[in-house]
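Hey, weird one. I pasted the N-acetyltransferase domain-containing protein sequence into the form twice and got a warning about non-standard characters only the second time. First submission, copied straight from the form history:
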Amino acid sequence: MEDLRLRIWSENDLGLLHAANTPEMTAHINGPESVDQIIERHARYLRLVASGEARMFVIEDEGARALGSIGYWHVEWREEPALETGWFVLPEAQGRGAASAALALLIDDARAHREGRRFLTAFPGVENSASNGVCRRNGFTLAGSFTEEFRGAELTVNEWALDLTE
């Protein structure tokens, strides 16, 4: 998909989180969040962007239409400082390479803002073939899988990592 851009998350982007909070869009992450949880997620994105602890973006097409969201935030991974990324693309934009193109743009941004962190990590559900493919297409290495509690239920995820220094 061509002509995508990433725009930093803003106060006006709450509606995008509501649009993505459907059973279909959240099937690989144990289901939708409550309205209060969505409002808190939006506030957290704004807070983390303002503090520099995260860079959250809206994925836009050439007409500035929001197609989804992608971002990264500071984490500890395998006992060292790292970045973790996550994304979603709305149904009408899926299957056209938007997530892969957005991740490629995000990788460039992460390299520029990594603050000494070596790895960018991603943890898609093991059954989420689309997101696992996005990681593979963007040069991430599969490091394993694990199961943890997420949104009140167990979730088994693949553990992907990209060396930002390469």
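That's the output from the first submission. The warning seems to come from a hidden character in my clipboard, not from the data itself. The longest strand covers residues 66-77.
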